[in-house]
Fold:
Amino acid sequence: GAVVSQHPSRVICKSGTSVKIECRSLDFQATTMFWYRQFPKQSLMLMATSNEGSKATYEQGVEKDKFLINHASLTLSTLTVTSAHPEDSSFYICSARASGLANEQYFGPGTRLTVT
Amino acid sequence: QKEVEQNSGPLSVPEGAIASLNCTYSDRVSQSFFWYRQYSGKSPELIMSIYSNGDKEDGRFTAQLNKASQYVSLLIRDSQPSDSATYLCAVKPGSARQLTFGSGTQLTVLP
Structure:
């Protein structure tokens, strides 16, 4: 199957700082990438959808100025959590889809963010 | 009504048994259906995709789709303790770009 990487896998940051998470499709070109957040023992929550070269579409309730998404190339999308607060601590997971993969979405391994 | 519904479980089966996981969806024009496995603390892993009515088999896994009943299921034969995980059903509604996920069914395979 297609491989998606994410970096870093874990990050601890202080309240008020910003954190950037990278998501890369390693063996295919991802026309669309998705960012999810998952709190312990809860379901995946879609935060935003991004297409290469265009602005991300954010889900209702997700602050676009706080969660900056850049999909600069067909293999890379970044999520920047700005002015992080402890309540932003969560498991952030990206997924990617290529047009030739029959709508299949492949997930990265996730990034566990802890804001102190 | 949720767009994709799954029994949250937990579902427990003995080792070697068949585990049956069920999912219903509300959008009649959905065309793509997926099962993901998520181990605790890990991200989801795609294990099956199905697009046509009927059964699709891959190793110990069989996905079943019935579009008339808006129902998709996953059977795991010869269940192993390593199959213990949360199984997520995902559906691509007709015109949406993103998948809609169920809340997942927690499966425990008892040794």
Summary: The radius of gyration of chain B is 13 Å.
